[in-house]
Structures are given as structure tokens and as C-alpha cells.
Amino acid sequence: MQGSLSNDAIKIILITGFLIWVMPLMISTYTLTILIVYGMLGLSLGLIWGFGGILCFGQAAFFGLGAYTYAIAAINVGESTAPMILAVLVPAGFAALLGAMMFYGRLNDVYLGVITLVVTLILFKFINSTAGPQYVIGNARLGGFNGIPGFQTLNIPGSPEAYIWGDSYFYVCAVLLAVVFFLVSALLRSSFGRIAVGIRENETRMSLMGYDVRARKTALFAVGAAIAGLAGALFANWAEILTPSLFSLGQSAEIIIWCIVGGLGTRMGPVLGAAGLAYLKFLLGQQSAVDNTLITGLILVLFVLFLPKGVVPAVAGLWKVSFGRRPLGRTHHQRRPRNRERVSG
Amino acid sequence: MAETVLETHGLTMRFGGVVASNNVDFKLRARELRCLIGPNGAGKSTFFKCVAGLQTPTEGEIYMRGVETTRWMPHQVAASGVGIKTQTPNVMDSLSVFENIWLAARRFHDPKDANRKTQDIIERLALGSIAKDDLGRLAHGERQRVELGLVAVGDPWLVLLDEPAAGMSAEDVERMTRIIHEMNKTAAIIIVEHDMQFIRSIAKMVTVFHQGEVLMEDHVDRVMSDPTVRNVYLGKKN
Ligand SMILES: Nc1ncnc2c1ncn2[C@@H]1O[C@H](COP(=O)(O)OP(=O)(O)OP(=O)(O)O)[C@@H](O)[C@H]1O
Ligand SMILES: [Mg+2]
């Protein structure tokens, strides 16, 4: 990555400030809030897939787990602070276990995809089947396909009566996304992040350099789940009712599409892809002439065909070509010709 | 006599019916430089992979500096100070030369020292002008040199190089030879090579592999003039 972390911070603050000011002039804060939540969810997969090379088909599972953890804890506690923290920790812990099982079991990428997919399905089926009164955690009924309604929503820490909702909730979500984005930037600039990218590029080489690839992938996987869990908790507060469809495969697939369309290997791409496509879905939802999933599918196909790297890398590339300075002391003529002998092994 | 740093007893590796490595007893002393030769498929790379932990031998044991490492994972072997260059290029193609070497240095040093060590290696390998280029854009010889840098920057005490001179220009080979000699001041080195001229220029002791077994182990001059060796290996070329 170019620039420094303090540069990142300044950029994030300026852009967040600008968007918080401008966007509500065009779109309702209620809609913007869910776009932010999805942006954070996109970022969670963008981190582990785009930078860690871990393609998870079950990111929705961590999102749903975060949301359900929040709701169940909030019903029991009656105050939102501890539930918010739990909503981050529980998915992270679950991912750490699942990740350790997969990475220490040396499963290859295909099986990883299958297992994360199956885990999502199991969670979906399980939560769906918990309508009966015997499924309770403390005071909270799981509710099965009926979902969980009526839990304590976000309040000012320590004062359960002081709800944060409406415009204020939008601001809280926006700031949280900015903070998470900053933390992700810091992570990617740290040794941990750089090593993760190295592992994405060549696992064998990194292990021959002495890195325990299994442990590092497990850790990154858990970080991604923590972010997805936070997004889930924010979703719960926005929706005020949870249903098992959070765990659906459709949701997981959408997250993957957000990342592809926005641009893998960038921080901004998955956030923009998520917010953009979710907004499009919202607009399409207001009419009935064309089917929603059809359009999403079409967009995916068009992107894969014509803009395979996604929006953000394409725009960045265009920007460089038009306005970019050549790096000092080196011209393109000095570059060696490509002489790739791509032999893997 | 210097201590033994690497020792294998009856190392055997089977792939189904193929015996890639057969009952290999091998000994290497500290700061020794050894060449491994043998025809294609003789089991040289398999031997390396077993030592590096990339493959677990079917039978036999491996000891490094007195510790059994037979079932160690590659990262454990590497973390103990063993540097490996595999036969096929094994680098991070979409990362810069600097980043590649820095990642190797970072394993053994804090970020600041890793920066310094990386700069140092980049200078010694004359990679300065391409330090910021992605590895995927570089010529084969340059990538080989970077991979050697990855290995050298970790200050290993045992170095395994599988065909390091393959596809390199004479100038590249000369530079590499210098680096190898430099590493050899502190590390024992095993080099697998087919290039006889290169072997003559660098080796004293040579081990010949043939059909997974050690055929002969002796001074380079005697190995090169041995009729059996010429028959299985050199004979093909002349
Ligand atoms: N993973 C594997 N599965 C099956 N057979 C293998 C495998 N790896 C190596 N072999 C076989 O083991 C034998 C030894 O292979 P190896 O790569 O060790 O030879 P080598 O001496 O390095 O040859 P070269 O000079 O061509 O690199 C060969 O017959 C090869 O086909
Ligand atoms: Mg080989």
C-alpha cells in the first residue's frame, strides 16, 4: 500500500465527514444505515478474501451469528453494551474454531468453500427449526422461522432508556464503519497484514520462510468474522426483528458478488460494491417490472466479462494513466520484458 | 572435525509403486558445501522435500543438529534456520522485490531490522534498480536471484538449493556463486545441479543419486572420472 497510516486516517476522516454531510441530502438516513451495514459486511469478506486469499462462502453465517448473539444477549441483559461486544466475540470465536479445523486439517480451497457453505446451511436449518417454546437461551426465545422481535436496541452505554435511533443511529453506524475501515488499514500495514498478503500469494514459500500458515489464516479468518459480527449487530438494531434468512445462502452469495463488483484486493471496493448493489436492489425492490436477482446476476456476469478486477481497481488504473506521475528515477523503458515462466509447485 | 548438522538414516519415500528415495543415509557437517547430482528422476528433489518437511518420508529418520525433525512441518524446519530454494520458482509474484525479501527477513527480525537487512541483501545482490518492481515482471535470472535473497536474508545455518543455476546467464551465475560462498562462511549448503561446469567450480564433495539411492559419495574429481557415474549420468551427455 502507498502512503502512510496517518495519511489514511486523514483521508478516512475527510471522506466520512463529506459523505455524512452530503448523502442524507439524497437518500434517507434509514436507507443509508443499511447500506453502511452492508458496506461493513462487504469489508469483512474483502479483508479475508481480497487480502488473505480465503474465499468464504459462509460470511453470512458470521453476520447472522452476530445479529442473533446481539438480540439474544440484549433480551437477557436489557442494555446494549455487553451484547454489542458479544456480537463481535462470539462470531470471532466460532470462526477461530471452524478456521482451525479447516486450516489445521489442511483442506484445500474447494473444501473450504464447501465447508463454509455447509455450515451456513446447517445454521439456517437449525435456527429455522427452533420455533418451539423449548428453544430458549435465558429469557430469549429463538423463535425459529418467526424470528426474534422486540429486543433492546442500541442505547447510550450505561443508560438503557437513552436509545440511539433514527439519524443518531445513522451517525453511529457511519463512524463505526470509518473506525473499522481505519483498523483494517492499520492491520494491512502491519506485519500481520503484510504476511497475510504473502500467504495469499504463495503459501508454500511463506511456510518455507518459517511462517505457520495455518495459525495465521485462522487468525485472519476470525478477524473477518468479528467484523461481520459487528455488522450483524448493527443490522439487528436497524431491523429490530431478526429472521433466519440472515443465514441464507443467497445472502452469502450477495456478499461475494459485492466484492467482485467493487474490486478484490482493495479496501474501498467491497464497501462500495456492497453499498452500491444494495442500493440498486433497494431501488429495484420498489418496482416489479424486472426481477431483482436477475439484475444482480446480470451485473455480476457483465463485471466478470468486462471489468474482472472490479470498479475500484479500474478507476484507480484510469486515474493513474491520466494523472499519475511516473515513479522518480525510473522509466517504463527500463522495465524488463515479461518473461514469466509460471511453474507452480 | 566440525559437528554433523544434518543426518538421515534409511530415508525412504514411496509414491505408490515408485520408490523416489530409497534407504538414503546422508551426513553433512557444519559449513560444508555439498553437491548432489544424478539423472532426472534420481530422487534429489524428493530428498530435499523430505528434509524441508514438504513431504513426510515413508520410512527413516532425519536429524538436524542432533534433533529429530522427521515429522516436522516446513515452517518448523525453516524457523529453526534452514533456508530452501525449491526447483520450481517459489516466490510472491504480485509483490515487489523488496516486499518478498522483507517478508523473509521479518520472520527473524523486528520490522526495523528487517528493513535494514532487506536493504543490505538488495545491495549485495545488485537488485537496487528493480527493488520496487513486482516479481512477476522480472526475467527468470532476476527472480532466481531474488529467491536466493529470500534464503540468504534469514541467516540460515543450513541451505538447500535445488538447481539454482538453471536458466541463468554467466554473469548471474558468477554473482550467485559469490553469494553462496558468502553464505557458506556460516552455513552448510547442499546444491542440486545438472550443470557440471558449475559443480566443478564450486564443489569439493559430491553425492551421486541414482534411482533413489546414493550411488557414490566422494571428491568431485574422483566422482567425475568414475566409470559407473559416467555411465548412469555423464555418459548420457557425452
Ligand atoms: N508427488 C509425487 N508423486 C508421485 N511420484 C513422484 C512425486 N514426486 C516425485 N515423484 C517421482 O519420484 C522420482 C524422483 O523424483 P525427483 O523429483 O526427486 O527427481 P530429481 O532427482 O529431482 O529429478 P530432476 O533432476 O528431474 O529434478 C521420479 O520418478 C518422480 O516421478
Ligand atoms: Mg529435481
UniProtKB/TrEMBL annotation, chain A:
It is found in: Cell membrane. GO terms for molecular function: branched-chain amino acid transmembrane transporter activity. It is a multi-pass membrane protein. It comes from the Bacteria. One of its GO terms (cellular component) is plasma membrane. The chain crosses the membrane at residues 12-41, 47-72, 84-104, 110-127, 169-197, 218-235, 255-280, 292-319. This is High-affinity branched-chain amino acid transport system permease protein LivH. Pfam families: BPD_transp_2. PANTHER family: HIGH-AFFINITY BRANCHED-CHAIN AMINO ACID TRANSPORT SYSTEM PERMEASE, SLR1201 PROTEIN. Keywords: Cell membrane, Membrane, Transmembrane, Transmembrane helix.
TrEMBL record, chain B:
GO terms for cellular component: plasma membrane. Residues 6-236 form the ABC transporter domain. The keyword Cell division does not apply. Pfam families: ABC_tran. InterPro entries: ABC_AA/LPS_Transport (IPR051120), ABC_transporter-like_ATP-bd (IPR003439), ABC_transporter-like_CS (IPR017871), P-loop_NTPase (IPR027417). Keywords: ATP-binding, Hydrolase, Nucleotide-binding, Transport. GO terms for molecular function: ATP binding; ATP hydrolysis activity. Its EC number is 3.6.3.-. Gene3D superfamilies: P-loop containing nucleotide triphosphate hydrolases (3.40.50.300). Signal peptide: none annotated. This is Lipopolysaccharide export system ATP-binding protein LptB. The gene is lptB_5.
